[in-house]
Prior knowledge:
26% strand, 31% helix, seven-stranded mixed sheet
Amino acid sequence: KTNLDCKHYRGLLSHCLARVYSSSPPLRAFESNITEGIREKIGRGLHRKQLHPLNIVKCMVEGYFSKRFQTKSGETLFKYYDNLDPYVSTIQCFDELLVPKDHISRSKSDTFYLDENTVLRTHTSAHQQELMKSGNRAFLATGDCYRRDEIDSSHYPVFHQMEGVYVFEDPNIDSELVVSDLKDTLEGLVLELFGTAETRWVDAYFPFTDPSLELEVYFQGDWLEVLGCGQIQSKILEDTGNGHLKGWAFGIGLERLAMALFQIPDIRLFWSEDTRFLEQFSENKIIKFKEFSKYPLCYKDISFWEPAGFHENDLCAYVRDNAGDLAEKVTLIDRFTHPKTGKTSSCFRIEYRSMERSLTNTEVDEIQDRLRNELATLGYELR
């Protein structure tokens, strides 16, 4: 090509690109999906609040590890962390834990994003590499975690998790011994918390452990999953300067344990400031919760044509943002797809109930109206 030809093609390319960019919509800035209701929960630290059931369980677990892992001088091998920043990078929350790039947990329907590179941690495992790189080889890290989730008595967008890590000093230890020690340790923990209880191990999958397992406890006539665990992936150990060693890790949900141990029927109660709830508990004791009230239920239905990219977690987030803890449950009761337009219509039932007082139909109608107005502004075609 001559210089004249090159100039011609460069000019033609510039002209085409200008037409493309002038006709394309402007790129949208990244929008955080952290709502005001979630921001209000950050820093509450229920797991550090003395005599709160979550704190009681946390202290009992820490006490067990202090006794089990002692040095000859009587000191515990484990270090305990419970005040780590809940805002973490996507590298900490996902990449360092070998979570695949296309994993659903990375989506904005599952995770609360502050910006493209910063999230509210979805698990305390997000601190695993950070703590190991600082020289920790035996620790428990407890904190508040955040996930966009469904609405019912056992799910809440804020929950509390404890991460446990133990790296063996012996570089020649066999993987079978690592898993055996992990099982013995966690079965001992269950015995400490539940007393005599039947347990079983179930094969599982977590990106950051291999093999991966879940421990279930037979409790009140049913099998209850209490934790996930496994041998730490060698890549994670290599990244933290421990590539010559082996270790195990586990994650345990404090709400799930506390609901079973104290027989607390609704996860929203953990956020209650009602003294009738808080004054029932004592340090280092498992006391059956006594319901102080059962106020009437009020429900409303809402129907709409689903917008593009609709996810039920998005709807639940809008419901929580308008109703707060008055929203007890959201259930899909009808869904159909129009044969001609291909559009999908859904009807959800929203159940409202206060844990502390009776709701009036008027205030529930006001909440429902606010929700409908918000959904309409977001492009939902209400029916």
